[in-house]
Specification:
22% strand; D-Maltodextrin-Binding Protein, domain 2; 45% helix; elongated; 12 strands; 13 helices; three-stranded antiparallel sheet; 3 domains; five-stranded mixed sheet; alpha/beta; Arc Repressor Mutant, subunit A
Length: 297
């Protein structure tokens, strides 16, 4: 099967009667025009052009193919115009929920700039929360979540991996030392999540491996845990994407296999078909190579 993109080289040569003029029109090297035209002839099994002293002329087969190639060109132009019009006309606000530290990393990247360039009429509104917000209540349109997804009504795509480890501050280590193994954890002070997040995997993991651990402070966000650990209050399990980038934190244990999860971009089937939501959802999936280092470090 031939590459449809090669038809534009045939059209350019037919219009300009030379590969040199065709290369200028397409803004490519002359050798590229000749190579792609030769590849098209090879795939079709027929010569398309003949070289004459006055320039290139189409063969009989090339003449027969020309109006069909022009129809393809017109269809591609119409499709391109439709897509560009769609991008201009998609307007409104898309509410994206994610943990607060992730919002900072996204806004400090060039990701949103590229999204605005593609969809100038759309605005991304961040709803920051470490808790899972309810789609059914209309709180959000799209979620970036790590962890198990219990809601079968949601659709999503994997965009990365979430790794967690145990961190402490140099101040805490100087005062209390650091654990060398999981069995040492009960001897240390801990910073954990409060009662608003009883089912968080970090909370459940600590209860399983160190049920007697002394939790001296609690918070309702990962960012709150980071502040407490940096202050030397105690140890905490944190995402490596955040913990490893904090100059005042030291990874003392891990990554912890039991805490590993995947990051997903999620929404509901109904919202997935909404143009403004589909625009951001598809953009995040398309930009997964740029998004992955943002969310995983």
């Amino acid at each position: 099967m031939f590459d449809w993109n090669d038809l534009k080289y045939l059209l350019a040569v037919a219009r300009h009667k030379s590969t040199t003029a065709a290369s200028r029109a397409l803004q490519v090297n002359q050798s590229t025009v000749q190579r792609r035209l030769a590849e098209l002839e090879r795939c079709l099994g027929q010569a398309l052009v003949q070289r004459h002293p006055s320039g290139y002329r189409l063969t009989t087969f090339g003449e027969q193919l020309l109006p069909l190639a022009q129809q393809v060109e017109q269809s591609v132009a119409a499709l391109t115009q439709h897509v560009e019009t769609f991008h201009r006309e998609v307007t409104g606000v898309v509410r994206l929920t994610c943990p607060e530290p992730l919002m900072y990393r996204i806004t400090n990247s060039t990701l949103l700039e590229r999204f605005r360039a593609r969809y100038p009429g759309l605005e991304v509104e961040f709803v920051m929360s470490d808790k899972y917000l309810d789609f059914a209540k209309g709180e959000v349109d799209i979620a970036l979540r790590s962890g198990d997804t219990q809601d079968n009504a949601l659709v999503g795509r994997k965009v990365g991996d979430s790794l967690w480890a145990v961190y402490a501050s140099p101040k805490y280590i100087a005062r209390r030392g650091q654990p060398d193994r999981v069995e040492d954890l009960e001897r240390h002070d801990w910073v954990g999540f409060d009662d608003t997040m009883p089912n968080h995997r970090a909370t459940q993991w600590l209860q399983q491996v160190a049920p007697g651990a002394h939790v001296v402070a609690r918070n309702n966000s990962v960012l709150g845990l980071i502040y407490s650990v940096r202050a030397g209050v105690g140890l905490a399990a944190l995402p490596t994407a955040l913990g490893d980038t904090e100059p005042d934190l030291v990874r003392v244990l891990g990554p912890i296999p039991e805490l590993a999860r995947i990051w997903r971009v999620l929404t509901t089937p109904a919202l997935r078909r909404t143009p403004r939501v589909a625009a951001l959802f598809d953009f995040l999936v398309d930009e997964v190579d740029a998004l992955r280092p943002i969310i995983t470090g």
